[in-house]
Q: What sequence folds into this?
């Protein structure tokens, strides 16, 4: 994970105040954020920039391989720091997204599927959809262990 100025310099990335604050936002939140959430974070830090500037900074960070863009099919893009491969828990009631890591490596399963189906796998998307604990409590649904 990118979390210091030296790493950014090693990627030849000019560290503007806006770019540094966007990275701080993504690092602190530890979850994929959309444009509005990033804009709100910048505003809370007294940084007033237009939409084009924010998207330009996000594009530059993507091109440098520091962040990635995610699309969960909700009509907006989200961004997160590139880190160890992981998946997401998505609440279908409130759209809360949490990152989840697995101890098991899925590379061997991908290789087996590829060999069995003669399909060259170039990546995968694996997200869990459900109802978070907070929304379960609101609706009175029973939590399952």
A:
């Amino acid at each position: 994970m990118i979390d210091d100025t030296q790493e950014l310099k090693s990627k030849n990335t000019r560290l503007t105040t806006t770019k540094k604050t966007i990275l701080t936002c993504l690092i602190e939140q530890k979850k994929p954020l959309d444009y509005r959430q990033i804009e709100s974070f910048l505003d809370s830090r007294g940084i007033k920039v237009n939409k084009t500037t924010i998207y330009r900074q996000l594009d530059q960070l993507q091109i440098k391989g520091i962040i990635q863009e995610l699309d969960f099919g909700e009509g907006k893009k989200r961004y997160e720091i590139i880190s160890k491969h992981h998946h997401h828990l998505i609440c279908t009631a409130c759209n809360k997204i949490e990152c989840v890591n697995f101890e098991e490596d899925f590379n061997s399963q991908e290789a087996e599927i590829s060999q069995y189906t003669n399909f060259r796998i170039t990546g995968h998307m694996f997200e869990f959809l459900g109802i978070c604990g907070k929304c379960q409590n609101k609706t009175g649904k029973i939590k399952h262990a």
